[in-house]
Write a structure and sequence with these properties.
Structural class: alpha+beta
Number of strands: 10
Distance between the termini: 15 Å
Strand content: 25-35%
Number of domains: 2
Radius of gyration: 23 Å
Order of helices and strands: HHEEEEEHEEEEE
Shape: elongated
Helix content: 10-25%
Number of helices: 3
Length: 167
């Protein structure tokens, strides 16, 4: 189902918001007079549809894949990095240089190791904190590398109102 079909379904079947007889709402721009005949403009409905899609992804983990654009470049100076906000959960991680899979560990597993977040060596594990959207690696990798991720994620590109226009 494309965006035009979703907006049409919303307008006709749920919202009863078609703007009256003879109104081509799919072609209406927000600044046109005909838009006053609608309760919601196409841009607002697109925002609502994008939010609904996000909620479905967050509750169901619909997309699990590897996207190179979501991989993390790591350095030898830090162990904590921001996760892309579209990542819902990391399923697997590995170092790109060796293709060695990293083990997920809980922060409690390294809590008793003095200065665990400053120890360096070859990274063997990762710790995720979805509350802050951070990922930490243990130990800090001694070389610059990339961590490849398989993750559950949201859509990479939200729907755009410009795609509502009829072809």
């Amino acid at each position: 189902m494309n965006l035009l079909e979703m907006v049409k379904y919303l307008r006709v079947s749920i919202l009863d918001d078609t703007g009256g007889v003879g109104i081509e709402w799919a072609d209406i721009e927000e600044d046109q007079d005909e838009s006053m005949m609608l309760r919601w403009n196409n841009e607002e409905l697109t925002v609502f549809i994008n939010e609904a899609i996000k909620k479905v992804h967050r509750s169901s983990y619909l997309i699990k894949d590897h996207q190179a654009s979501l991989d993390i470049s790591i350095s030898s100076s830090t162990n904590t990095y921001n996760l892309d906000t579209r990542i819902l959960k990391v399923k697997k991680a590995r170092l790109a240089s060796s293709k060695k899979e990293l083990t997920w560990i809980d922060v409690a597993d390294v809590w008793d190791i003095p200065e665990w977040d400053e120890e360096s060596g070859t990274t063997i594990a990762y710790i995720t904190d979805y509350n802050t959207n951070k990922i930490s690696f243990y130990p800090i990798n001694v070389a610059v590398d990339t961590v490849e991720l398989i993750s559950y994620r949201e859509e990479l590109t939200p729907l755009s109102p410009s795609t509502i226009k009829k072809p």
